[in-house]
């Protein structure tokens, strides 16, 4: 770590839980962010400002004026641009030393199989169950920790799934693919702007703790956020032995 980095990250280095070694791990780490919208914006900005050395951002969409109510990495000047490129520019404006690799394509199984093995942590910031399950399958297959978040209307949730731990559940243990959960989209249901910031910031915090070696205490728990009352509740999430995704992985 050079003198400029010691100064830039000095407030991290002062933390006993992180210190020089933890910051060095961040500088040498690779985070894969799926989605560059309401959740992906604060995730990428905080990972970049914290000094995560390499961030890959996957998003096939472009910036729209309706995104600007909550997707803080984008601005009016970048309306019409791919979101992944917009996030790259936003992170570079804060910390040009961070390498941001934009992937302007859908996060399908083939792309995830190529990208997930290269990452130290995967942060799921997408907005649909099909992609969430595809990301989960890839993380279980390649034994990579997954930080998952979601927000709709005034409700949010956060979970960390780490298949490296023998008793840890995966996303499908909590939300089976055949559960018939109804898809809800913010384009039709709405979403409270600060809520995606709250969830995304928490996702970034858990990812940074995993990358720095501090570890996450969220594995096996689901955090539910009620934005109306600003209340936070945890529920335990056990691993399902018959889970079709992770059951045979342990």
Instruction: Describe the largest sheet.
Output: 8 strands, mixed
The parts where pLDDT drops under 50 for at least 5 residues are none
Measure the end-to-end span. 38 Å
Query: How are the strands ordered across the major sheet?
Result: 3-2-1-4-5-6-7-8
Question: What's the helix count?
Answer: 10
Here the CATH topology equals Rossmann fold
Task: Please identify the top-level CATH class.
Answer: Alpha Beta
Mean pLDDT metric: 94
The tally of strands reads 8
User: Any idea what the shape is?
Assistant: globular
Q: Structural class given helices, strands, pairing?
A: alpha/beta
**Level of helix content?**
25-40%
CA-atom Rg in angstroms = 17 Å
- Strand portion: 15-25%
Examine the secondary-structure arrangement and name the CATH architecture.
3-Layer(aba) Sandwich
Counting structural domains, the number is: 1
The CATH superfamily title:
NAD(P)-binding Rossmann-like Domain
- Give me the strand/helix succession: HHHEHEHEHEHEEHHHEE
Search tags:
250 residues; Rossmann fold; 8-stranded mixed β-sheet; 10 helices; globular
Give an overview in words.
The chain is globular and about 50 Å long. A hairpin with a 4-residue loop joins β7 (221-226) and β8 (231-236). The protein has helices at residues 3-8, 10-13, 19-27, 40-50, 83-94, 109-115, 129-142, 171-174, 186-189, 193-212; strands at residues 30-34, 54-58, 99-103, 121-124, 146-152, 155-161, 221-226, 231-236. The protein contains 10 helices and 8 strands. The mean pLDDT is 94. 46% of the residues are buried. With 250 residues, the chain is α/β, with parallel strands linked by helices. It has one domain (3-249): NAD(P)-binding Rossmann-like Domain (Rossmann fold). It has an 8-stranded mixed β-sheet with strand order 3-2-1-4-5-6-7-8, with helices on both faces.
